[in-house]
C-alpha cells in the first residue's frame, strides 16, 4: 500500500505500552515496530517465552536456543502443545549472552547472540539453522542419547533419544560430536543445522538431500489481486525444502516438487514437504460489494425491511454517539452505516439521509478531535493509532494501547467511514487521510511506511490475523473472532471502493479471502475434520480462541457451554460478507442444530439468539424470518433491519439460480408503484424504481460489486420525501 499522506492524529503520551526492550538490535530499534507478530515473545520482557514457528517450538534462554518438536495434549475442551527442550544449541564464547532480534520480515525472524552466533528462524523450515563465526558449538538435551551415528567426515550426526525422537545434526565442515554431545572445544566457522526426523519412510533421505540450502528470510508479495507469492532468500547450494500447511495446499499454484509422504505433525494440520524457493498461492476471487449478495425481493418483502428501518432510524441518537469505547462506538457506527446501505438497496432515501446526518455527527468528532468521550491518537513509541483512554488505562478499549484487537476496532470505523464517504464524497475527501490512517494501522503493506508497521495483524504464513498485542503469552499470539477480522479487511476494501482506489480494494479483498479460508480451515470444526484429534472434533463445532500453541473452546468472555456466544462471535457483524464466510450449508445446519439447545438456557439474550437465526436464514429463511420477528432486542452492532435483509435476500426455493431470480425481481420492482410510510408522524414516499446513478463516475464509486472491481451491483435512485 503506497500513500503520500502523513498520519493525521495527535501524538499520544502512552503510559500503558511498555518501552521497546533492548532485545531489539540497535539497527532496527526504531518505530514503527511490529506489535502482533508470531515471534513477539522474543522481544517482550526477557524474551525467554517460547514461540511456535512451524514445525518447532523455540525458546531463547541464557544464551541457548532450545528446540522442541512438540506433542499435543487433547481434551474435548482444548488442544495444547507443551514445550520440552528436546535439543539445545549455544555458543560457548558467548556464554549466557541474551539474544537480540537483528532482522525480521514476513516469513522469518533472526536472533543474534553476540558476534559469533546468528540464528535465522524461518517459518515452515524443517531445519533450525545456526550460523557460527569462529565459535564453539555447545549441544545439550534433557533426554538420554541412546545412540549416536556419525559419518566419516563428521559433518552428519544422527541422535536417537529415549523419548522416541531422532534428530540429525548437519555441519558445513568437520564438527566432532560425542555421545554426551560434547564437541571437544572444537572452534567452528560455518553452518550447523538440526532437524527432528518425522515418521515416514525415506524422511532421513529427504532431510539429507536438501540439507545444504538454507533460508535466511522471506517475503509475501500481495501486489496481485487474490494472490500471495512467497519468496525466500537462500544461501548454500541445492534446492530449498519447506513445509506447507493444509490451507496452503488448498490454493498452492506453482511449485517444483511436492513430498506428501515427508510430513510433520502440527496443531494446524499436517505439514507436508514442498521443494522450491517461490510459492504462488491463489484464492478464488470474491464477488461482493456494498449490498446483499442476492438482492431484496419481492416488493412486499421490502415493505417489511422498510418498516423496521424506519423504527430503527428513529432510535439513532438525535445528536451523536456518546459511547466512549472505541469498540462499542465503532460497532454502533457500523450498525448505522449498514442501515443506510440497506435503505439505499430498498430505495428509502429518507432513511439514507438520516443515517448520513447521524454518521457525520458521530464519526467526524473522532477525526477532528472534538469527541469528548475519548480520542484517537498516534503512539510514536511503537507506531500506531491508539485511544486516549487506552493510553491511560491498560484495560480501556480492550487493551487497544497494548495493540490488542486493532483490526476489530478500526475495521468498524473503516466500514462506517467507507459508507459515509460513499454517501457524501465531500466528507470523504475531507477525512480521507484519517480513514486511510486507520486502514494503514492494521493492514499497511508498504515496508517503507514510516508511520505504520507492515501487516500489523495479518500473518502471511498462517494466513490469518492475530489479535493479541504487546503481552507475553506462553501459548503465543491469539485470535478469537475471525468474522470481525474478515470484516476489517472487507471494510478496508470498501474504503478503497469509496475512493476509487484499486490497490486498496485488491489488497483488502485478498486479505479477506485469505482470512476467510483460514477461518473455515482452523476455526470451523466440521465432522470430517482431519486437522484436530477425534476427541476434540466430536465434541465441538467451533474453536473459541485460537492460539499459536493451543485451541480453546472457551471464549475470553464466556464458557464453552454458551454455544450461542461461541457461534455469535464467529458470525458478527452480519453483512454481505457473512454468506461468503459460511458457504457449506450442511455445516451451517450442523452449527445451528448444535447451538439451538443452548437458547433455552436461563439468561440467554435475544442479542445472541439473533446470530443463530441469521445462520438459520442461510438454509431455512422462512422459519428464521418468523423467529427474527420474535426478537425484542439485538446486538449493539446488529439490527432487525439487518437480519431481515439477510433473511429476505435468501430464496426458500433453491431450484433457480440466484442471478436469474434477482434479475426477475428487479424487473418486477421497476414496475412497482410508490409506497407510503410514516415515522414519528412524518409521511415518506418510497419509490421502488431501480436505475443507475447519475453519472459514470458515480456509478463506478457507488455501484461497483467487486471481484477485484466487477461492475454489477445496483444503486437505487433516491426519491423525494412527501
TrEMBL record:
Belongs to the glycosyl hydrolase 81 family. Residues 29-288 form the Glycosyl hydrolase family 81 N-terminal domain. It catalyses: Hydrolysis of (1->3)-beta-D-glucosidic linkages in (1->3)-beta-D-glucans. It is an enzyme of class 3 (hydrolase). The keyword Glycosyltransferase does not apply. One of its GO terms (molecular function) is endo-1,3(4)-beta-glucanase activity. One of its GO terms (biological process) is cell wall organization. PANTHER family: ENDO-1,3(4)-BETA-GLUCANASE 1, GLUCAN ENDO-1,3-BETA-D-GLUCOSIDASE 2. Residues 656-675 are annotated as: Disordered. Gene3D superfamilies: Golgi alpha-mannosidase II, domain 4. InterPro entries: Endo-beta-glucanase, GH81_C, GH81_N. It comes from Marchantia polymorpha subsp. ruderalis. This is glucan endo-1,3-beta-D-glucosidase. Its EC number is 3.2.1.39. It holds the Pfam family Glyco_hydro81C.
Amino acid at each position: 500500500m503506497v500513500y503520500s499522506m502523513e498520519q493525521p492524529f495527535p501524538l499520544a503520551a502512552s503510559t500503558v505500552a511498555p518501552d521497546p526492550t533492548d532485545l531489539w538490535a540497535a539497527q532496527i530499534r526504531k518505530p514503527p515496530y511490529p506489535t502482533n507478530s508470531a515471534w513477539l515473545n522474543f522481544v517482550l520482557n526477557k524474551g525467554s517465552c517460547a514461540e511456535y514457528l512451524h514445525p518447532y517450538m523455540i525458546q531463547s534462554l541464557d544464551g541457548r536456543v532450545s528446540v522442541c518438536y512438540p506433542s499435543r495434549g487433547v481434551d474435548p475442551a482444548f488442544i495444547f502443545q507443551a514445550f520440552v527442550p528436546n535439543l539445545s544449541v549455544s555458543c560457548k564464547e558467548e556464554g549466557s549472552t541474551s539474544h537480540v532480534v537483528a532482522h525480521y520480515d514476513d516469513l522469518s525472524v533472526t536472533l543474534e547472540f553476540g558476534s559469533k552466533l546468528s540464528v535465522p528462524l524461518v517459518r515452515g523450515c524443517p531445519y533450525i539453522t545456526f550460523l557460527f563465526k569462529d565459535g564453539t558449538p555447545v549441544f545439550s538435551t534433557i533426554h538420554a542419547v541412546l545412540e549416536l551415528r556419525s559419518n566419516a567426515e563428521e559433518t552428519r550426526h544422527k541422535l536417537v533419544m529415549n523419548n522416541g525422537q531422532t534428530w540429525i545434526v548437519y555441519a558445513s565442515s568437520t564438527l566432532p560430536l560425542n555421545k554426551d554431545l560434547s564437541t571437544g572445544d572444537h572452534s567452528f566457522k560455518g553452518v550447523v543445522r538440526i532437524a527432528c526426523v518425522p515418521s515416514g519412510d525415506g524422511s532421513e533421505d529427504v532431510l539429507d538431500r536438501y540439507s545444504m540450502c538454507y533460508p535466511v528470510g522471506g517475503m509475501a508479495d500481495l501486489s496481485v489481486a487474490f494472490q500471495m507469492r512467497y519468496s525466500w532468500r537462500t544461501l548454500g547450494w541445492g534446492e530449498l525444502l519447506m513445509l506447507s500447511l493444509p490451507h496452503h495446499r488448498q490454493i498452492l499454484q506453482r511449485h517444483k516438487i511436492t513430498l506428501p509422504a515427508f510430513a510433520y505433525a502440527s496443531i494446524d494440520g499436517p505439514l507436508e514437504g514442498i521443494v522450491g524457493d517461490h510459492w504462488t498461492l491463489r484464492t478464488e476471487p470474491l464477488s461482493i460489494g456494498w449490498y446483499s449478495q442476492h438482492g431484496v425481493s419481492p416488493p412486499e418483502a421490502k415493505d417489511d425491511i422498510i418498516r423496521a428501518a424506519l423504527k430503527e432510524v428513529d432510535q439513532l441518537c438525535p445528536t451523536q454517539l456518546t459511547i466512549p469505547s472505541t469498540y462499542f462506538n465503532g460497532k454502533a457506527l457500523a450498525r448505522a452505516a449498514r442501515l443506510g446501505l440497506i435503505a439505499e438497496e430498498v430505495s428509502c432515501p429518507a432513511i439514507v439521509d438520516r443515517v448520513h446526518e447521524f454518521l457525520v455527527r458521530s464519526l467526524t468528532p473522532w477525526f477532528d478531535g472534538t469527541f469528548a468521550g475519548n480520542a484517537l491518537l498516534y503512539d510514536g513509541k511503537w507506531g500506531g493509532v491508539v485511544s486516549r483512554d487506552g493510553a491511560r488505562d491498560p484495560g480501556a478499549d480492550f487493551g487497544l494501547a497494548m495493540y490488542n484487537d486493532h483490526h476489530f476496532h478500526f475495521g468498524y470505523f473503516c466500514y462506517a467511514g467507507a459508507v459515509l464517504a460513499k454517501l457524501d464524497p465531500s466528507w470523504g475527501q475531507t477525512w480521507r487521510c484519517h480513514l486511510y490512517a486507520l486502514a494503514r494501522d492494521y493492514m499497511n503493506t508498504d515496508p517503507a511506511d514510516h508511520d505504520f508497521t507492515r501487516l500489523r495483524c495479518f500473518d502471511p504464513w498462517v494466513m490469518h490475523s492475530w489479535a493479541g498485542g504487546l503481552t507475553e503469552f506462553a501459548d503465543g499470539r491469539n485470535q478469537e473472532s475471525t468474522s470481525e477480522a474478515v470484516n476489517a479487511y472487507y471494510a478496508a476494501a470498501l474504503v478503497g471502493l469509496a475512493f476509487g482506489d484499486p490497490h486498496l480494494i485488491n489488497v483488502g479483498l485478498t486479505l479477506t479471502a485469505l482470512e476467510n479460508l483460514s477461518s473455515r480451515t482452523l476455526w470451523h470444526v466440521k465432522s470430517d475434520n482431519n486437522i484436530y484429534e477425534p476427541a476434540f472434533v466430536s465434541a465441538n463445532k467451533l474453536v473459541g480462541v485460537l492460539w499459536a500453541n493451543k485451541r480453546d473452546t472457551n471464549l475470553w468472555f464466556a464458557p464453552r457451554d454458551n454455544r450461542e456466544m461461541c457461534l455469535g462471535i464467529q458470525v458478527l457483524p452480519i453483512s454481505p460478507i457473512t454468506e461468503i464466510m459460511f458457504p457449506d450449508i450442511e455445516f451451517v445446519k450442523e452449527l445451528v442444530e448444535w447451538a439451538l439447545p443452548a437458547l433455552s438456557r436461563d439468561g440467554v439474550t435475544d442479542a445472541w439468539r439473533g446470530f443463530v437465526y441469521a445462520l438459520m436464514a442461510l438454509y431455512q429463511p422462512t422459519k428464521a424470518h418468523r423467529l427474527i420477528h420474535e426478537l425484542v432486542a439485538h446486538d449493539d452492532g446488529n439490527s432487525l433491519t439487518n437480519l431481515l435483509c439477510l433473511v429476505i435476500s435468501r430464496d426458500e426455493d433453491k431450484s433457480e439460480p440466484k442471478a436469474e431470480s434477482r434479475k426477475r425481481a428487479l424487473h418486477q420492482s421497476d414496475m412497482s408503484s410508490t409506497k407510503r410510510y410514516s415515522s414519528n408522524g412524518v409521511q415518506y414516499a418510497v419509490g421502488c424504481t431501480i436505475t443507475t446513478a447519475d453519472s459514470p463516475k458515480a456509478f463506478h464509486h457507488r455501484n461497483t460489486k467487486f471481484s477485484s472491481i466487477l461492475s454489477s451491483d445496483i444503486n437505487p435512485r433516491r426519491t423525494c420525501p412527501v
